[in-house]
What does this fold into?
Amino acid sequence: MSYPYQITSQEQYEKAYKKSVEHPEDFWAEVAENFVWRKKWDKVLEWNFIEPNVKWFIGGKLNITESCLDQWAEKTPDVPAIIWEPNDPNEKSITLTYKELLHKVIEFAVVLKNNGVKKGDRVCIYMPMVPELAIAMLACARIGAIHSIVFGGFSAKSIRDRILDSQCSLAITSDGAYRGGKTILLKPAVDEALEGDSPVKKVIVLQRTHSDVTMKEGRDIWWHDEIAKLKGQELKDPLEIMDAEDMLYILYTSGSTGKPKGVVHTIGGYMVYITYTFVNAFQYQQGDIYFCTADIGWVTGHSYVVYGPLAAGATSLMFEGIPTYPDAGRFWDIVDKYKVAVIYTAPTAIRSLMAYGLEPLKGKDLSSLKVLGSVGEPINYEAWQWYYENVGKKRCSIADTWWQTETGGIMITTLPGVTPAIPTFATLPMPGVQPVLMNEHGHQITESNVTGKLCMKFPWPGMIRTTYGDHERCRLNYFNTYPGYYVSGDGALRDDKGNYRIIGRVDDVLNVSGHRIGTAEVENIINVQDCVVESAVVGYPHEIKGQALYAYVILVGEVTQEEALKKINDAVNKEIGHFARPDKIQFVKGLPKTRSGKIMRRILRKIAEGEIDNLGDTTTLLDPGVVEEIKNHRV
Ligand code: PRX
It folds into this structure.
């Protein structure tokens, strides 16, 4: 079966794009017809980008899991919905057909109900990449609870902040996680996050690593015990019928201000958008094995491991491990073993595998591959070529997909085999996506080959609706700079054929190995250390990670540099997670500031990049002498 909304020629793309701009409501209504609704919408769209207020499929009633599970459990019950490949290749893999997955989701939905979770409640999920993670999120969606997944690399403090911000009443975790050769404990981090007053009343714990964990009486319960209680009982499906604009989930992400914000996605528009983009960006054909290597803890996993593929009736391969375990051939072993047709990964992963040369690819049959996807950061020319030549054997088209947590789904990409791919360009907007480039005066750039700030002038169904508990923050972050536009925070260039090339962030957000980190978040942690007066964190290019963090720190008191380094690193580990630790820390006597006291980050960035002879104008600095000192002691 192919999909009625699948674009298979350049001409169709142009036609679809034109229609999506001229008649957006008709365009999206037609796509939305392909999903399971309990009641059709009364009105397709209502919007303004000033408040902002965006609503799609108004009055529509549905439960997203009926599109993701029930329809396929009926039409294609024995097709694998999820294939799970464990961290250890010697452990048995798991296949869950649509029929089996539906059953497991209903079972766990009953468990959630039995533990007091009601429609609208928030549930925090902190789990490894195991099928139960997908089951937990779908079970939340089944009963109308809002999930807030926290990536397993985050610290206890980060879990705590997120739980408090959205007032979660229940948490789901596991004893531990396997990642490469390591066993990482997860439950103790949740225990620490819940110390003192907490809105979380129950914790459901999955047994994964059989690590020793403490179970708090009255609060903590085992996943398997709860499921065992249901045996022999007739299951009453606790499905809730939801409004199209009810919240589906909250996902915290970093911005240019200190505190991560809870991006809110709602049900109807998100479902339609991510499924449409899944089918088109990967040119998915039913029966294809689709392998997205992202962790479900990030938006890529939400949209393109779970919801998008399942709503399309696809087979989604979920991988627990890392690309280099037990060796750097693991991705290719998986492609070979399952005859993967589509692989969707990050430039960071490609670059780290490039470093191992071609040996790990030898003897691996990659002939099943049709499409190679890339996401999360700009893919540099060398990585693009390596992927194209050595993985795709010059037969597969690359989809360099640009999007964000806030956009919900893919916005700009080549449609593989349909529209032309150009290395280092994300290329063309998806139908329904209306990008513009703005200059520094807030005017739209009409010329070609000029860089500007990438904004959107029209809503798309998968977009952010609010930031949880603070709508004003959403307005200020995304809709305030250029009134009437959604501001992405990325810079881009558009060529004379309308292809977009993403340059990277133009705000104080960094992208380290595809993980979004706000420089202010890290500075806040460094600045509260007793031994620190002030700090400034900037990014610099890193061969594998794309970007890495460079911190300039002014110390005070009797502390040695070694002690200060340890304190700072420990604090970042504890407050965010080890992935946010600066790669380089330079202790300085002063920071370059303007006379009004603003740190000149441009200069610090240049020094971090090693461009010390080309610092531009430093005459406006309060004390140009500090620049010399910083330059001379670069680390
Ligand atoms: O800077 C862009 C970069 O990742 C940011 C979004 O990060 P996050 O919300 O964590 O979502 C990542 C997965 C969608 C963007 O603002 N980015 C993402 N994809 C690309 C990209 N930069 C260049 N090219 C891409 N294909």
